[in-house]
Design goal:
disordered C terminus, membrane, 11 helices, 80% helix, Gustatory receptor, two-stranded antiparallel ribbon, transmembrane helix, 349 residues, transmembrane
């Protein structure tokens, strides 16, 4: 990221890069750099979170092994979705495609040799990895944190369902209260650690989707090297945004389900003939405990409805850009009307 930004600034300073390219890629490098510093600054908190996840998961008897496979597949797809378009882009840069070389400030290297292809391949990979790969990897990291935290609610939910059938005793409810408190602390730590990073990656993906949509509506006709650049964003960004929102909302959904079971248990305890006041008090404490809702920077809460809001805003933005484009074409046509023809078919002056 820093190398990409330094390359763009250097090319502009020596006069090879056009101002539009410099501004565009400087802005596109700013958010990934902010994501880097946000995630790197909280590396110790993330490490402690994963230690807690593994420690709490070790107490469970049934362990699922599909998560590492899914993570590896997601990372592989992310790298391939960047590597293949970068290779296509490098071929166009190597073949001295005029538009591509000017856009990527590559017109200062004119020798057709292996070093040119190596440099073009490096430059294309740097640009695409900065804009797409790195934010996607951090998004996968956020999804893993949310998903692992959500998995820890399953044993507690199973115990609550069993307590609804069997009359809960005091020592069992005391053990349940301890688990409930541990999960409360854990979710608070997850929200505190990941919320800033999740907000930045959400902004990065949304910005990429808006820019791609605007380019599609305005230009319509793309060169192959432009398709190679836009295709990874079109595929990865919506998928990762949906995955992060669903993983974050999974915690909120399970908290609501726990609250439902606790409310039923509380009603059963109040209707009992011999009330256990200490057990009743512990259930009330758990019901009064408000879990932190997973959010992106405290601004947008992760709920399933957020997915519809995201794509609804994209649709509205696309319609707005389409109307602006049509209005621009109509205004140009009004300023330059077609010449009038007389009866003989000649143009009237």
């Amino acid at each position: 990221m820093h190398i990409t930004l330094a390359y763009v600034v250097y090319q502009f300073c020596v006069g090879y890069a056009i101002p539009a390219t410099t501004i565009a890629y400087t802005c596109s490098c700013t958010i990934p750099i902010a994501i880097w510093y946000s995630s790197y600054g909280k590396r110790n908190l993330l490490r402690s979170l994963f230690v807690k996840f593994n420690r709490m998961k070790a107490r469970r008897k049934n362990k699922s092994n599909y998560q590492p496979l899914v993570i590896n597949i997601a990372l592989s797809v992310t790298f391939l979705a960047t590597f293949v378009p970068a290779t296509v882009l490098a071929i166009f840069l190597f073949s001295s495609n005029k538009e591509a070389t000017v856009f990527y400030s590559f017109n200062n290297i004119s020798k057709q040799n292996q070093s040119r292809y190596l440099v073009s391949f490096t430059i294309s990979n740097l640009f695409l990895m900065t804009q797409i790969t790195f934010p996607s990897i951090i998004t996968i990291l956020c999804c893993v944190v949310y998903h692992k935290c959500g998995d820890l609610f399953k044993p507690l939910l199973e115990q609550l369902e069993n307590y609804r059938v069997d009359k809960p005793r005091q020592y069992r409810m005391n053990h349940l209260l301890q688990k409930y408190q541990d999960l409360y602390k854990l979710t608070h730590q997850v929200e505190k650690t990941v919320k800033t990073t999740s907000f930045m990656v959400l902004v990065s993906h949304m910005l990429n989707m808006y820019l791609n949509l605007a380019n599609y509506v305005i230009e319509r006709d793309f060169a192959i090297w432009e398709i190679a650049e836009f295709l990874p964003v079109t595929f990865l960004s919506p998928t990762l945004v949906v995955a992060m929102v669903l993983c974050g909302s999974r915690i909120t959904t399970q908290v609501k389900e726990m609250q439902y079971h606790l409310q039923i248990i509380l009603c059963d305890l109040k209707r009992a003939v011999n009330r256990d006041m200490e057990t009743l008090e512990m259930v009330k404490i758990m019901l009064d405990t408000k879990f932190t809702t997973m959010s992106a920077g405290g601004m947008v809460q992760f709920t399933p409805g957020l997915v519809l809001s995201v794509f609804g805003s994209l649709l509205s933005f696309g319609l707005l850009m389409l109307n602006i484009t049509i209005s621009s074409v109509d205004s140009i046509a009004a300023l330059d009307p077609a010449p009038d023809l007389n009866k003989n078919g000649s143009i009237e002056v």
